[in-house]
Amino acid sequence: MKIENTLPLKAKKLNRVTNPWGLLVLTSSFLLMIGAVYLAYTLQSDFNDFNQERTNSVLGLSFMIIAGILFVLKAAYFIFILFRYFKYKPVASVSNDELPTCTVIVPAYNEGKQVYDTLISLAESDFPTEKLQLISIDDGSADDTWNWMKNAKNELGDRLEIFQQPENKGKRHALYRGFNIGKGEVFVTVDSDSIVNTDTLRNLVSPFVKNEKCGAVAGNIRVLNKAKALLPKMLDVSFVLSFEFVRSAESSLNSVLCTPGALAAYRSSAVFKCLPEWINQTFMGQPSDIGEDRAMTNMILKQGFHVLFQRNACAYTNVPEKYRGLYKMFIRWGRSNVRENIEMSKYVFKNFRTEPKAGTRLLFLNQSLKIIMSYPFLLFMLFFVLTHPLLFISSTLVSILVLSTFPVIFYSNRYELRESFWAYSYSILYTFGLFWITPYAIATASRRGWLTRELPKKK
């Protein structure tokens, strides 16, 4: 059953724009995969010889056994996640009287007019005004962000509080200031390049009312600028799978592993229990200035709280439109993933909550396996490319055609069929253009820096 399109007005206007290169890229993607199917068919005897070579050596046979085991494990894990997905149901909004007091914190850095749009969209929320505290903090911007925040303040009056950091200290410090100023029972963090639906806030915080063990809630993130370039179109399909499929399954286990910075909610009492540790977090002796959302999620899970996902609480955020911005964003996410998996390993096999913990541990093991196997996979891929380039290209593209069909079906079932085909193009891009991200993120996990902050903003 397809869901109703609740895209905000600004995003709807953007989506009327079409990219002339889109059809060319999609057509090229399909031609590549169809050509790969034909090539794989004609090279069938070569595939048989290659497999025979591997079975005739101890090393090759060992590799095939390990690869077979990993394939079975991944298939079983997918079936498990699919089962948990069907168990998931978002919490319906509670009444106005039941809604908790809520502090929304919007940190901003060099965001320009977008921060104004973000604050106005939040102020237009269907949430009792007397229960909503809206705070925005300029993190030492070098552009006109502060002026746009003042424009929003002039329009919203006492409904909005704005503050300015004396210098750029990073998003974590801006949020820290907001947490200490906030008075709500629930803290909501929203990125300054995001806009929300009118019912987003009330849907996001309702689980705290229904579930007293709920410590954090992840919002549903979609792409705002997907009509401006091809990469955002691809990322929108990827985000839908990541949030509406994966996080739905995680939520059914009360263990969403990351509440996104673009839209997340936290029980204030849970935040204050870990706030000193969070703001002073280090990795290999260096202050942590990335991954503040994953770190907060980890620390709240560690306290024994449930972390849930609300599919009906949507935010639409801007994503990189060029390859450089995309890989820098993924490197930052990859480094954070490495760091927080190490932290999670310190408590996940202990008695961190009274309820069943097997699901949480399985989610952790799956993420850890991806990290552990990244280098062996990279080495095998390079060996395969050097020794059998045609076999590598054909088998890889055929695998993309098969494996990417699931996100295509999932996205088209929930949204639009024509947009779903970007899953194929994105998989090709990721496989051939971003395969190096995880190995590089592991090797450079101790490096600091936001990376995408240095990129120029598009006017």
Structural description of this entry:
The chain has helices spanning 9-14, 22-42, 44-55, 58-87, 114-123, 145-156, 171-181, 200-210, 230-252, 268-279, 292-302, 323-344, 358-372, 374-387, 389-403, 405-414, 417-420, 422-433, 437-443; strands spanning 102-108, 132-138, 160-164, 186-190, 194-196, 214-223, 263-267, 282-283, 286-287, 306-317. With 459 residues, the protein is α/β, with parallel strands linked by helices. It has a single domain (1-42, 88-459), classed as Spore Coat Polysaccharide Biosynthesis Protein SpsA, Chain A (Alpha-Beta Complex). Helix 6 links the parallel strand 2 (132-138) and strand 3. Helix 2 crosses helix 15 (389-403), helix 4 crosses helix 9 (230-252) and helix 12 (323-344) crosses helix 19. The two termini are 38 Å apart. Residues 1-5 and 9-17 have low confidence and may be disordered.
Jot down its keywords.
single chain, 459 residues, alpha/beta, Spore Coat Polysaccharide Biosynthesis Protein SpsA, Chain A, two-stranded antiparallel ribbon, 19 helices, 13% strand
